[in-house]
Design brief:
It contains ten helices and 14 strands. It is an alpha/beta fold and 309 residues long. It has a six-stranded mixed β-sheet, with helices on both faces.
Amino acid sequence: MDKKNVLTVKNLKKNYKKNNSQTVKAIENLNLEVKQGEIFGLLGPNGAGKSTFINILAGTVLKTSGQINVWGFDIDKNPRQVRASIGIVPQEVNLDPFFSPRKLLELQAGMYGVKKKDRITDTILKIVSLDNQSNSYARGLSGGMKRRLMIAKALVHQPPIVILDEPTAGVDVELRQQLWENVKLLNKNGVTIILTTHYLNEAEEMCDRIGILNKGKLVALDSTQNLLNKINIKKVRFKLSNNNSFDRITLKSLSILKSESNELVVSYDKNKLTMNEIIEFLTSKSINILDISTDDGDLEDVFISLTNN
């Protein structure tokens, strides 16, 4: 069964006027759809338009033209319902240091007009693993707890979509893993996640689909696996029984990355060469291969090839 779109963007444009009245195209003709229940990654170098896009959804920046529909609501006709359908977790941690997590969530719920009987403060504190710190001052929380509290604040009005803007920027590896467990749990509970990130390994591990923005344009939109399959360059490591030193190999598209003692590492274009051809070539040179390991490249390779950064 096809899942419904929770976010549909059509021909979105955002232009800024510079002081010298030159027009800057922050977003140019953006078209994308996000499906219910998925973790959707929005990637791109600095200045690609990710933050502008999020600010338009948040209602803090006005679009120049185009259509946006969130959870069935048009952003022009029902801006309040659109904002109520989205929870945004910003990059910066901004919390009142003298309030406890519980108090902060209660205040936030009040600001959204959530009635006392409809509030789910305890549940949210559990989801972000802050139930034990619910009555401590925010100033006494660790960096990771503060990040999780920012996620909690975005959940008080129970939005079906949560946008995480660079949630693990400047966070250590252990804390990053912890935050991801929380995000996966949220997603498991039916929340659609849109996430912007600089960490490509993070997007690779977390996202079902990925859109890549570059200079305001969408340069790729596909499932994470399909994007990875688009990489033509493969890397192969051969463990050899005899000591061989290669300077060059006369095979089309094959490059030697490393050649020393009992190891040979090469890269090749899988559209121009097969693994069998490489093995046959090496065997013809009386080389005895003990072991082969391949590396299919990662999202970073896709990213670089698409954004030429």
